[in-house]
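Final report, Chapter 2: Outcomes

The project's central promise was a pipeline that accepts a single protein chain and returns its three-dimensional structure in a standardized token representation, suitable for archiving and comparison. That pipeline is now operational. To close this chapter, we reproduce one record exactly as it appears in the project archive, with the input sequence first and the structure output second.
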Amino acid sequence: MEIINLSDRSKAIGEALSEPDLSEAAHLSEYSKARGGAQAGEPCLNRTRAKQPTNCLATITSVKPSPRNENRVNIFIDDEFAFSLDLAQVVEYKLKVGQTLDPAELEKLKKASNFGKLYQRTLEWALSRPHSVRETKDYLKKKQFEKPEYGITDEDIEKVVETLIKKQYLDDRKFAAYYLENRFQKKGISKKRLELELQKKGISPEIVAETFENSPRDETAEIQKIIERKRKKYDDEQLIQYLVRQGFDYQLSKSLVA
């Protein structure tokens, strides 16, 4: 999980709780009058109303640490919980208690909230073990299909992946090295099969070739692992054919089985 240190956390919340920019509030009040709509401070998120004014202003009345995630804070609009944001977003948008928001600003923050939660879920998934870029995109597309209520867009998927790459949580070279080091290490596996599997996971032929150049895995040693496991199950000819089907060279397999 991406962790923000305690000093940054305190600073972000402290800034959000500081006095609002009165000049900005005055400006937004003028905006409301010009639109001929609700007065500054009229609730936009009052859930007791069946119909809301479309041009009202909303006021941030409280910013509280999230009890479930130390890197997020809960934003209250007109004394009602509205959404949560991560600390970096609070700083980025310079949010403060008492600040008023027009409908466009409010919608922008809601989208930022959804993106922040999507990014955090994907980050936790990415940190469970190394993943390739294609695996991550497939994971997000699956969420997009299975969870339409999340409102995940193609743009969100690209932005999450780009951010993870930028912060070095996704790296196809590191993934390929990890995969090659751990895949069927005890059972044995052919180079040909590993190449196909890596390509299916979106790893480029150049990275695959580079990874094998730096790997200590050896075809002879891999064949011997399989022979040790399968010797009692197959006779020599069956074992050779089995090895060939697994992607090993016929002549090398024959010489090691004999």
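Archive annotation: The chain has three domains: 6-104, 119-166, 172-257.
This record, like all others produced under the grant, will remain available to the consortium after the project formally closes.
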